[in-house]
Amino acid sequence: MDDHKSKKETVRQKLLEQQKEARIARKIVFIITTVILVLAISIIGGGYYYISSALKPVNPESKLEKKIEIPIGSSVTGISQILEENGIIKNAKVFKYYVKFKNESGFMAGDYTLSPSMTIPTIIDNLKTGLVNKEVALKITLPEGIQLQQIAEIIANKTNQESTDVLKTLNDKKFIEALMKKYPTVLTKEIFAEDIKYPLEGYLYPATYSFYKDNPTLEEVVSVMIEKTNDVLGGYWDEMEKQKYTPHKLLTMASLIEEEATEQVDRHKISSVFFNRIEVGMPLQTDPTVLYAKGKHKSRVLYEDLEVDSPYNTYKVKGLPPSPIANAGSMSIEASLFPEETDYLFFLATPEGEVLFSKTLNEHNQKKAEHITNN
């Protein structure tokens, strides 16, 4: 009987000890959880306060106005540093990430009058709208869908140079490597791949550029154009990563769409044809690549032209050509990323500018006979 009581007492003691240990364990878990939670709240709160404070004006009551020069070709990082060094913003990094988060772009070079009392959005608006102290000395407009040779001619005419000299510099490896150091995200080693005709083809964004000095250097002129490409692509980085698109591949596809498109056409449908052809292993067979390979501008491609031996000839080589064949605008870049879902494998541009889409070769040939052969 005593043994039985002794065993019961032993079991009871063990249960009590286990309960005590469980209470201690719960207290330890509670304390650790509380500490972690407090630390997390402190870090988040501190980070929020830090960022919130950095986005406020340096001195809302300041009457000071400073002349700030934003050099041609300045990146967002460079602009941020200039503004911080001159006391216009509190923190260059916060400003840079704010600009990227808001997807702001189109900052213009020039001399600005800015104040420490300005808010971040006001500063950005000033830099985007070009509220500068100097008159525009030079404007260069690059239309969509033109090629590097044409761009060289436009720059040469505006800057009183020979187009052959401009084109030679645009293809100079040292000149290009200097630009790659400034824009490593957009200008990658892909532009020096084998068989590429012009490394900077497709990278000089179509837009109107204003310059505030009489004789900007070629590097200053080209830097602004690549900066614009960098800004435009910056709005699509997440989607590019998702689709495993490099800037080079994206601009190459966009250039094909740009060259094939008319004002009336839905670029997203043209994009779908190219993607559908790649998926089923068909060559892209786009005429502009043949003309680019031949270095000629013609209104109509002949059968004999299709025989040109070139990696750019998409009648003979499957997939994308080695590089862009022209500069593409935002509509073609978006179409490259977001093709329409179709079953089309063919399209045909009529003399009237309409683009007709077909699912089969037979249907395509019927439309060709109706709209092209009879013209």
UniProtKB/TrEMBL annotation:
Gene (UniProt): mltG
Keywords: Cell membrane, Cell wall biogenesis/degradation, Lyase, Membrane, Transmembrane, Transmembrane helix
Site (Important for catalytic activity): E260
Species per Swiss-Prot/TrEMBL record: Pseudoneobacillus rhizosphaerae
CDD domains cross-referenced by the UniProt entry: MltG_like (cd08010)
Keyword field contains Transmembrane: yes
Protein family: Belongs to the transglycosylase MltG family.
Catalytic reactions of this protein: a peptidoglycan chain = a peptidoglycan chain with N-acetyl-1,6-anhydromuramyl-[peptide] at the reducing end + a peptidoglycan chain with N-acetylglucosamine at the non-reducing end
Cellular component aspect of the GO annotation: plasma membrane
EC number: 4.2.2.29
Function, as annotated: Functions as a peptidoglycan terminase that cleaves nascent peptidoglycan strands endolytically to terminate their elongation.
Lipid bilayer topology: Single-pass membrane protein
PANTHER family recorded: ENDOLYTIC MUREIN TRANSGLYCOSYLASE (PTHR30518:SF2)
Molecular function per GO: lytic endotransglycosylase activity
The keyword Phosphoprotein appears for this protein: no
Transmembrane segments: 28-51
Pfam families xrefs: YceG
Enzyme class: lyase
An example Gene Ontology biological process: cell wall organization
Name of protein: Endolytic murein transglycosylase
Cell compartments where the protein resides: Cell membrane
InterPro entries the UniProt entry points to: MLTG-like
